[in-house]
Amino acid sequence: MELKYKRVLLKLSGEALMGESGYGIDVDTVNFIAREIKEVQELGVKVGIVVGGGNIFRGVSEASKSMDRVTADYMGMLATVINALALQDALENHGCATRVQTSIEMRQIAEPFIRRRAMRHLEKDRVVIFAAGTGNPYFTTDTAATLRSSEMNAEVVLKATKVDGIYDSDPKKNPCAVKYESINYLQVLNEGLKVMDSTAISMCMDNAMPIIVFNIYGKGNMKKIITGEKIGTIVEVDNA
Ligand code: UDP
Protein backbone atom coordinates (compact mmCIF):
# COMPACT_ATOMS: atom_id res chain seq x y z
CA MET A 1 0.00 0.00 0.00
CA GLU A 2 1.32 3.44 -0.96
CA LEU A 3 1.88 5.57 2.15
CA LYS A 4 1.81 9.36 2.07
CA TYR A 5 3.30 9.62 5.57
CA LYS A 6 5.70 7.18 7.17
CA ARG A 7 6.51 9.09 10.36
CA VAL A 8 3.86 11.00 12.24
CA LEU A 9 3.28 12.74 15.53
CA LEU A 10 -0.27 12.37 16.80
CA LYS A 11 -1.50 15.04 19.21
CA LEU A 12 -4.30 13.68 21.38
CA SER A 13 -5.93 16.13 23.74
CA GLY A 14 -7.09 14.92 27.11
CA GLU A 15 -10.61 15.71 25.99
CA ALA A 16 -10.29 13.22 23.13
CA LEU A 17 -9.95 10.45 25.74
CA MET A 18 -12.99 11.71 27.61
CA GLY A 19 -15.50 10.81 24.88
CA GLU A 20 -19.00 11.94 25.76
CA SER A 21 -18.37 11.93 29.51
CA GLY A 22 -17.65 15.30 31.06
CA TYR A 23 -14.46 14.36 32.89
CA GLY A 24 -11.67 11.80 33.03
CA ILE A 25 -11.12 8.80 30.81
CA ASP A 26 -13.77 6.86 28.92
CA VAL A 27 -12.62 3.27 28.45
CA ASP A 28 -14.55 2.63 25.22
CA THR A 29 -13.19 5.83 23.68
CA VAL A 30 -9.60 5.00 24.64
CA ASN A 31 -10.02 1.51 23.17
CA PHE A 32 -11.43 2.95 19.96
CA ILE A 33 -8.47 5.34 19.66
CA ALA A 34 -6.02 2.52 20.43
CA ARG A 35 -7.49 0.49 17.54
CA GLU A 36 -7.19 3.47 15.20
CA ILE A 37 -3.53 3.88 16.17
CA LYS A 38 -2.80 0.18 15.81
CA GLU A 39 -4.27 0.18 12.32
CA VAL A 40 -1.78 2.85 11.28
CA GLN A 41 1.17 1.33 13.13
CA GLU A 42 0.53 -2.00 11.38
CA LEU A 43 1.08 -0.31 8.03
CA GLY A 44 4.67 0.28 9.16
CA VAL A 45 4.16 3.92 10.09
CA LYS A 46 6.34 5.24 12.92
CA VAL A 47 4.01 6.79 15.47
CA GLY A 48 4.84 9.22 18.27
CA ILE A 49 2.02 10.54 20.43
CA VAL A 50 1.79 13.59 22.65
CA VAL A 51 -1.13 13.41 25.08
CA GLY A 52 -2.82 16.34 26.77
CA GLY A 53 -4.32 16.52 30.22
CA GLY A 54 -7.30 18.83 29.87
CA ASN A 55 -9.77 16.09 30.81
CA ILE A 56 -8.25 16.03 34.29
CA PHE A 57 -6.53 19.33 35.00
CA ARG A 58 -5.54 22.51 33.18
CA GLY A 59 -3.19 25.13 34.53
CA VAL A 60 -5.40 27.95 33.29
CA SER A 61 -8.75 26.48 34.36
CA GLU A 62 -11.40 27.85 36.72
CA ALA A 63 -10.35 25.35 39.42
CA SER A 64 -6.81 26.73 39.45
CA LYS A 65 -7.77 30.43 39.40
CA SER A 66 -6.48 31.11 42.90
CA MET A 67 -3.45 28.86 42.54
CA ASP A 68 0.11 29.70 41.73
CA ARG A 69 0.28 29.35 37.92
CA VAL A 70 3.47 27.33 37.90
CA THR A 71 2.13 24.84 40.45
CA ALA A 72 -1.10 24.52 38.47
CA ASP A 73 0.86 23.90 35.29
CA TYR A 74 2.86 21.13 36.97
CA MET A 75 -0.44 19.56 38.02
CA GLY A 76 -1.58 19.77 34.40
CA MET A 77 1.61 18.05 33.26
CA LEU A 78 1.07 15.26 35.79
CA ALA A 79 -2.45 14.81 34.42
CA THR A 80 -0.97 14.04 31.00
CA VAL A 81 0.99 11.17 32.55
CA ILE A 82 -2.23 9.56 33.83
CA ASN A 83 -3.61 9.75 30.29
CA ALA A 84 -0.39 8.37 28.82
CA LEU A 85 -0.57 5.31 31.06
CA ALA A 86 -4.23 4.73 30.16
CA LEU A 87 -3.36 4.92 26.48
CA GLN A 88 -0.34 2.67 26.86
CA ASP A 89 -2.48 0.09 28.63
CA ALA A 90 -5.12 0.17 25.88
CA LEU A 91 -2.51 -0.02 23.10
CA GLU A 92 -0.77 -2.97 24.71
CA ASN A 93 -4.11 -4.74 25.17
CA HIS A 94 -4.45 -4.43 21.43
CA GLY A 95 -1.01 -5.96 20.92
CA CYS A 96 0.80 -2.73 20.15
CA ALA A 97 4.25 -2.39 21.76
CA THR A 98 4.43 1.00 23.48
CA ARG A 99 6.81 3.07 25.56
CA VAL A 100 5.95 6.11 27.64
CA GLN A 101 8.60 8.82 28.02
CA THR A 102 8.08 11.72 30.40
CA SER A 103 9.58 15.20 30.32
CA ILE A 104 9.53 15.21 34.13
CA GLU A 105 11.38 12.23 35.55
CA MET A 106 9.31 9.53 37.25
CA ARG A 107 11.41 6.48 36.54
CA GLN A 108 9.25 4.00 38.43
CA ILE A 109 6.45 4.37 35.91
CA ALA A 110 8.00 5.59 32.67
CA GLU A 111 11.28 6.31 30.93
CA PRO A 112 12.61 9.84 31.02
CA PHE A 113 12.50 11.59 27.64
CA ILE A 114 15.72 10.74 25.81
CA ARG A 115 15.51 11.60 22.15
CA ARG A 116 17.90 8.97 20.85
CA ARG A 117 16.10 6.32 22.83
CA ALA A 118 12.76 7.46 21.47
CA MET A 119 14.17 7.22 17.93
CA ARG A 120 15.35 3.68 18.64
CA HIS A 121 11.90 2.68 19.90
CA LEU A 122 10.37 4.02 16.71
CA GLU A 123 12.87 2.04 14.63
CA LYS A 124 11.68 -1.06 16.47
CA ASP A 125 8.08 -0.22 15.60
CA ARG A 126 7.12 0.72 19.13
CA VAL A 127 4.63 3.52 19.60
CA VAL A 128 6.21 6.21 21.77
CA ILE A 129 3.92 8.24 24.01
CA PHE A 130 5.43 11.52 25.14
CA ALA A 131 3.98 12.65 28.47
CA ALA A 132 4.36 15.64 30.79
CA GLY A 133 4.32 18.15 27.94
CA THR A 134 7.54 20.06 27.47
CA GLY A 135 8.33 19.74 31.18
CA ASN A 136 7.98 23.51 31.50
CA PRO A 137 5.13 25.62 32.84
CA TYR A 138 3.51 28.26 30.59
CA PHE A 139 3.45 25.86 27.67
CA THR A 140 0.77 23.55 26.32
CA THR A 141 0.84 20.02 25.04
CA ASP A 142 0.21 21.44 21.55
CA THR A 143 3.61 23.10 21.79
CA ALA A 144 5.07 19.86 23.15
CA ALA A 145 3.61 18.11 20.09
CA THR A 146 5.25 20.53 17.66
CA LEU A 147 8.55 20.26 19.51
CA ARG A 148 8.56 16.46 19.57
CA SER A 149 7.43 16.27 15.94
CA SER A 150 10.53 18.14 14.82
CA GLU A 151 12.77 16.20 17.18
CA MET A 152 11.56 12.85 15.88
CA ASN A 153 11.78 14.04 12.26
CA ALA A 154 8.06 13.51 11.74
CA GLU A 155 6.57 14.54 8.42
CA VAL A 156 3.35 15.86 9.90
CA VAL A 157 1.51 16.64 13.13
CA LEU A 158 -1.88 14.94 13.23
CA LYS A 159 -4.00 17.09 15.49
CA ALA A 160 -6.92 14.96 16.68
CA THR A 161 -10.10 16.88 17.44
CA LYS A 162 -13.84 16.33 17.68
CA VAL A 163 -14.56 18.33 14.52
CA ASP A 164 -13.67 17.40 10.97
CA GLY A 165 -11.35 20.30 10.22
CA ILE A 166 -10.90 24.08 10.48
CA TYR A 167 -13.87 26.30 9.66
CA ASP A 168 -14.03 30.05 9.06
CA SER A 169 -16.49 30.25 11.99
CA ASP A 170 -17.89 27.87 14.59
CA PRO A 171 -19.90 25.24 12.64
CA LYS A 172 -21.98 24.52 15.76
CA LYS A 173 -23.19 28.15 15.88
CA ASN A 174 -23.10 29.08 12.21
CA PRO A 175 -24.71 26.60 9.77
CA CYS A 176 -23.09 28.46 6.86
CA ALA A 177 -19.57 27.99 8.23
CA VAL A 178 -17.12 26.95 5.52
CA LYS A 179 -14.43 24.32 6.01
CA TYR A 180 -10.92 25.02 4.76
CA GLU A 181 -9.22 22.27 2.82
CA SER A 182 -5.85 23.92 3.37
CA ILE A 183 -4.74 27.09 5.09
CA ASN A 184 -1.42 28.72 5.95
CA TYR A 185 0.00 29.39 9.41
CA LEU A 186 -0.35 33.18 9.27
CA GLN A 187 -4.01 32.90 8.32
CA VAL A 188 -4.59 30.75 11.41
CA LEU A 189 -2.81 33.32 13.58
CA ASN A 190 -4.34 36.42 11.97
CA GLU A 191 -7.89 35.09 11.97
CA GLY A 192 -7.50 33.79 15.54
CA LEU A 193 -8.68 30.33 14.45
CA LYS A 194 -8.75 27.91 17.35
CA VAL A 195 -6.41 25.24 16.04
CA MET A 196 -3.51 25.29 18.45
CA ASP A 197 -2.10 28.07 20.60
CA SER A 198 0.02 30.68 18.88
CA THR A 199 3.32 29.34 20.26
CA ALA A 200 2.61 25.95 18.70
CA ILE A 201 1.50 27.41 15.37
CA SER A 202 4.54 29.70 15.12
CA MET A 203 6.86 26.84 15.89
CA CYS A 204 5.32 24.71 13.14
CA MET A 205 5.59 27.69 10.80
CA ASP A 206 9.27 28.23 11.60
CA ASN A 207 10.02 24.56 10.97
CA ALA A 208 7.65 24.14 7.99
CA MET A 209 5.91 21.33 9.86
CA PRO A 210 2.46 20.67 8.39
CA ILE A 211 -0.48 20.11 10.73
CA ILE A 212 -3.55 18.09 9.76
CA VAL A 213 -6.60 18.85 11.88
CA PHE A 214 -9.06 15.93 11.73
CA ASN A 215 -11.86 14.17 13.55
CA ILE A 216 -10.41 11.34 15.62
CA TYR A 217 -13.86 9.84 16.15
CA GLY A 218 -14.30 9.19 12.42
CA LYS A 219 -13.49 5.50 11.99
CA GLY A 220 -10.50 4.96 9.72
CA ASN A 221 -9.70 8.67 9.42
CA MET A 222 -6.11 8.34 10.51
CA LYS A 223 -5.47 5.49 8.11
CA LYS A 224 -7.05 7.50 5.30
CA ILE A 225 -4.71 10.42 6.00
CA ILE A 226 -1.71 8.08 6.00
CA THR A 227 -2.72 6.62 2.64
CA GLY A 228 -3.17 10.06 1.09
CA GLU A 229 -6.91 10.73 1.30
CA LYS A 230 -7.84 14.34 1.90
CA ILE A 231 -9.32 14.29 5.38
CA GLY A 232 -9.69 17.34 7.62
CA THR A 233 -7.76 20.56 7.04
CA ILE A 234 -4.05 20.88 6.41
CA VAL A 235 -2.11 23.86 7.78
CA GLU A 236 1.03 24.27 5.70
CA VAL A 237 3.35 26.65 3.88
CA ASP A 238 1.34 28.55 1.30
CA ASN A 239 2.37 27.26 -2.12
CA ALA A 240 -0.02 29.51 -4.05
N1 UDP B 1 1.29 22.01 30.64
C1 UDP B 1 2.43 22.76 30.92
N2 UDP B 1 3.51 22.67 30.10
C2 UDP B 1 3.53 21.88 28.98
C3 UDP B 1 2.35 21.14 28.68
C4 UDP B 1 1.26 21.22 29.52
O1 UDP B 1 2.47 23.48 31.90
O2 UDP B 1 4.55 21.82 28.28
C5 UDP B 1 0.16 22.03 31.58
C6 UDP B 1 -0.77 23.22 31.40
O3 UDP B 1 -1.22 23.61 32.67
C7 UDP B 1 -1.93 22.62 30.62
C8 UDP B 1 -2.01 21.23 31.18
O4 UDP B 1 -0.63 20.87 31.40
O5 UDP B 1 -3.10 23.34 30.83
C9 UDP B 1 -2.67 20.19 30.29
O6 UDP B 1 -2.20 20.30 28.98
P1 UDP B 1 -3.13 20.84 27.77
O7 UDP B 1 -4.05 21.91 28.27
O8 UDP B 1 -2.23 21.18 26.64
O9 UDP B 1 -3.97 19.53 27.44
P2 UDP B 1 -5.08 19.29 26.31
O10 UDP B 1 -5.84 20.57 26.11
O11 UDP B 1 -4.36 18.88 25.08
O12 UDP B 1 -5.91 18.18 26.88
Automatic annotation (TrEMBL):
A Pfam family it matches: AA_kinase
Binding-site residues for ATP, renumbered to this chain: 11-14, 54, 58, 161, 167, 170
Domain of life: Bacteria
Residue span, Aspartate/glutamate/uridylate kinase domain: 6-215
Entries under InterPro entries matching the protein: AceGlu_kinase-like_sf, Asp/Glu/Uridylate_kinase, Uridylate_kinase, Uridylate_kinase_bac
Family that this chain belongs to: Belongs to the UMP kinase family.
Name of the protein described by the UniProt record: Uridylate kinase
Taxonomic source organism: Geovibrio thiophilus
Lineage of the species this protein comes from: Bacteria, Pseudomonadati, Deferribacterota, Deferribacteres, Deferribacterales
